[in-house]
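Schema walk-through. Below, the input block comes first and the output block second. Nothing else is stored per chain. Lengths vary across the set, and this one has 246 residues.
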Amino acid sequence: MKVKCPHSNNSRSRFVSLSPSLVADIVSTHSTRSVGCLVVGEEDSLRSRQQAASLRPAIIPPNRFIVRLESEMIMAKTDSFFIRKSVTLEGSAAFAQNAIDLGAYVDALGKAVLRIHNIAVQYSDPQAGTPDLTATTNAAADFQLTTQTQSDMVIAGDNKSVIASGRIVAYNEDGSTGVPTYVSQDLDVAPQQWKSGYLIGVEQIYLGGRRTNLGWNENVVVSLIMECTSETLSKEAAMALALSQQ
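--- output ---
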């Protein structure tokens, strides 16, 4: 990375080459204060650009000038990883909810946010099999993933805390208890994915759900597997979070 300092004693501004590792060390050990210097170019590889992109402005001794990273630099981002969570929907038809701790990935002060790219959904019984229905009955099971705690199911179009939701409706046409003859998710389709991902700026999200009291012969477990990345908050991401009002 090449840095220009206009406060040089020379008649011409001085250019200094800095490695990303040196910039990282400077950032971790010095306070920030603008003194009018700017980045004029990069000589390192794309990988080095990615490493440097998450750095905040920093004073570089002994010349006391500041490094400003170009706005078009790629923001630091992790490789994909997966977060898993389940919630058990019991026969009382009561709403059930479990919190998902994101404190390891989201840090408001450190400008770290989580992006969910895809969500895979599984409906099962507590033994990971297909949940049974009683004879000649229908039943339904719903789930929702939200950025705020809820006391019941909410309407996605009216509540901006909803990240994702899903619903299955099942029917057993047999004259005895068994697995469903028909299953539909047309009322609320899952799994879910987004073109650019769903940005999360809160340290907890909530997986909740409810099932019908009649029809199911056992509890229904809803399990999610979320493909995620963690990244530094850019101006564009901050605007997206503000618009989503999480």
